[in-house]
Amino acid sequence: MKQPESITPAGERLGVLLPGLGAVSTTLIAGVLLARRGLGDPIGSLTQLGTIRLGRRDEARTPRIAEFLPLAPMDGLVFGGWDIFPDDAYASARHADVLRAEHLDPIRAELEEIRPMRGVFYPDYVRRLHGTHVKSGSSKAEMVEQVRDDIRAFREKNRVSSAVAVWCASTEICLEEGPVHQSRQAFEAGLFQSDPAISNSQIYAWACLKEGVPFANGAPNLTVDFPAAGELALEHAVPIAGKDFKTGQTLLKTAIAPALKARMLGVKGWFSTNILGNRDGEVLDDPGSCKTKEVSKLGVLEQILQPGLYPNLYGELYHKVRIEYYPPRGDAKEGWDNIDLFGWLGYPMQLKIDFLCRDSILAAPVVLDLILLLDLARRAGFSGIQEWLSFYFKSPMTAPQVYPEHDLFIQLTKLKNTMRWMMGEETLSHVGHEYYRQAE
Questions:
Q1: What is the H or E stretch that residue 244 is in?
Q2: Average pLDDT in the 230-250 region?
Q3: Residue 149: what are its φ and ψ, rounded to 5°?
Q4: Global pTM exceeds 0.85
Q5: Superfamily for 249-356?
Q6: pLDDT tens digits, 197-218
Q7: Can you tell me the distance from the alpha carbon of 284 to that of 329, in angstroms, rounded to the nearest whole number?
Q8: Rounded Cα gap, residues 214 and 378, in angstroms
Q9: CATH topology of domain 14-245+360-422
Q10: What pLDDT score was predicted for residue 399?
Q11: Is residue 428 classed as helix, strand or coil in its secondary structure?
Q12: Which bin fits 432, alpha (ψ -120 to 50), beta or left (φ > 0)?
């Protein structure tokens, strides 16, 4: 990325396009609408509540990020999206059963006005859902054009000159990169041939990139993390980011594993299991979709612990992840971890974590931050992969020649240093030697 000489000011209105108007999307929308009225706080959002230190510690410059960065105003966000079910945002939120009536009823009229556009749905990629509000077309190329028409109509109807898209729909089956993903020409030929390696999410992403709409992938699908999408994003000067929101169990894993490694404590085994009962859980009950999620969750420890560099500490690590659909829990999922570790002289210890969390409550602020930061990236002239947003993802996208950084604290340092850099402030090393006199 090139350091911007200037950043285009945010417009008064920013379009937010959400493929998937389900639990995560409706929780996000409701939270934003409530915050506008002073009826709720955007807790969990770094852009809204976080601060950033500038300069030396003794300068006492620590503004809120929302005051430091020229972000689009929350009051100017205009929501739209697609879904394979026709429910408006209010009906969908009631069905998701994340937010209580006391939070939905004051904004019911606004939520009911948000009705999804017909979704792109080829059922082979999400086998447990049966959509009734879907597009039809003779090829996947035609589907891309229909989504592009939707984007243009949304912009015109809502008087927004710019928009950002975030995939908030269900996890698709595990797909590997194939020949169709290697270049723009190959992908567009594949669209006309309705190549089976091109999934629903890839169709949305391709349409958004063609329309100049930044795109973030909140699921572990193969969606924009392949060469053709990167090529198109650079050609149209569009930022892309992903993949898979880092919210519950993996958020804790990427904080705890660095702590164990920092103190050179060994790990023999790490068993993780999840139970959840929302629509995402139902989709993940299919082995194809579950494999996609498990691959995303399994990748973090290998990079953080680096067993190749520390074979005596992590060379025999046994890492297992399980995801179970359990309808009684709804959106209130449980992530349980058992860690078998060892310390001085090899003596064994155990760490057990039981995180009873709320999936959509954790995801909504992540989506809000990504919307605002991707829009900022576009106005700053950034395009292609935005690795500085890795803080928000389980499987961060990177340049092909570098490995992804999973350590939560390194990710946060990179995120805030990029904010400083883009605004012309000095990046921080935290060495701190300048505060102390040396002996003469």
A1: none
A2: 96
A3: -60, -40
A4: yes
A5: Dihydrodipicolinate Reductase; domain 2 (3.30.360.10)
A6: 999 999 999 999 999 999 999 9
A7: 15
A8: 7
A9: Rossmann fold (3.40.50)
A10: 94
A11: coil
A12: left
- Choose among 253, 250, 267, 264: nearest CA to 349: 267
Across residues 58-79, what is the average pLDDT?
97
Q: Which phi and psi (to 5°) does residue 216 adopt?
A: -120, 140
Among residues 356, 362, 173, 353, the alpha carbon closest in space to that of 276 is found at 356
Residue 322 CA from chain centroid, whole number: 21
Residue 167 has pLDDT above 80, yes or no: yes
The whole-chain average pLDDT of the chain stands at 94
For position 293, what pLDDT does the model report?
64
User: What is the residue-wise DSSP string for 35-82?
Assistant: HHTTS---TT-HHHH-B--BS-GGG-B--BHHHHS-PPPGGGEEEEEE
Please give the Cα distance from 251 to 203 (Å, whole number). Answer: 29
Whole-angstrom Cα distance, residue 104 to residue 29?
Answer: 10
Q: Which residues pair with 336 in a beta bridge?
A: 273, 354
> In the structure encoding, which two tokens stand for residue 93, read together?
């939120």
* pLDDT higher than 80, residue 289: no
- Residue ranges covered by each domain of the chain: 14-245+360-422, 249-356
Task: Determine the Cα–Cα distance for residues 168 and 207; give it in Å rounded to an integer.
Answer: 16
Q: Which of 52-56, 152-156, 170-174 shows the lowest per-residue confidence on average (mean pLDDT)?
A: 170-174
Using an 8 Å Cβ cutoff, are 143 and 135 in contact? Answer: yes
Q: Are strands 215-217 and 163-167 parallel, antiparallel or unpaired?
A: parallel
The amino acid present at 338, given as its one-letter code, is N
Q: What is the pLDDT of residue 431?
A: 86
Which one, of 108, 69, 372, lies nearest residue 241 by Cα?
372
User: Of the candidates 376, 329, 361, which has an alpha carbon nearest to the alpha carbon of residue 34?
Assistant: 361
